[in-house]
Amino acid sequence: MNVRIHESWKKELNQEFDKDYFQELTGIVKQEYSEYTCYPPVEEIFAAFDHSPFDATKVVILGQDPYHGEGQANGLCFSVRDGIQYPPSLRNIFREIENDLNKPIPQTGNLEKWADQGVLLLNATLTVRASEAGSHQGKGWEKFTNSVIRLISEKKEKIVFLLWGGYAKKKAKLIDSSKHLILTSGHPSPLSANRGYWFGNSHFSKTNEFLKTNGKDPIDW
């Protein structure tokens, strides 16, 4: 498969790519893409790792599954392509940024701008069959992305992990909280946000305060 992934991540993940489970996963994904419409496009499966090199990564946001609608997914969690209507969760993310940082809601839901500043927008599962949410869960992707989280925790310092919702919060056990900042809240989906579990978490300003305190450039959210 002709995927794009930054050389720094290839170096860090080479051993993971060689493991039996990942070889099996690769076979499953190739077959799925040959038989069904799947998202994101093949070359963007590892887009999160292509936009945010290993050394440059300073924030990790964890999603669960790519969007499964036509033209939405671009390989970055919560992100959609230019010109695509914001999904409800993304709209609530932008509303929280507006409230937290007094920034206007952007014209596009494409979050490449964040990724290019060192925000790893990582879905736990990197692919999905069209119109079938969760269809590629349990195939091996979660084992791979858990290894990525552990790798970042072990090899890097002072990373901000943003864990939104019950699924993402479970990943906290993979992270060394003595050397990284873990921020948790409800999920930005309307179901959670409208119950008061999302708005007011101030994660974006808290992230920037932590980065600045530790000598890193803040994110232009």
From TrEMBL:
PANTHER family: URACIL-DNA GLYCOSYLASE. GO terms for molecular function: uracil DNA N-glycosylase activity. Excises uracil residues from the DNA which can arise as a result of misincorporation of dUMP residues by DNA polymerase or due to deamination of cytosine. Its main location: cytoplasm. Coiled coil: none annotated. Keywords: Cytoplasm, DNA damage, DNA repair, Hydrolase. One of its GO terms (biological process) is base-excision repair, AP site formation via deaminated base removal. The active site is at 65 (proton acceptor). Its EC number is 3.2.2.27. It is found in: Cytoplasm. Pfam families: UDG. Belongs to the uracil-DNA glycosylase (UDG) superfamily. UNG family. It catalyses: Hydrolyzes single-stranded DNA or mismatched double-stranded DNA and polynucleotides, releasing free uracil. It comes from the Bacteria. This is Uracil-DNA glycosylase. Gene3D superfamilies: Uracil-DNA glycosylase-like domain. One of its GO terms (cellular component) is cytoplasm. Residues 50-211 form the Uracil-DNA glycosylase-like domain. The keyword Signal does not apply.
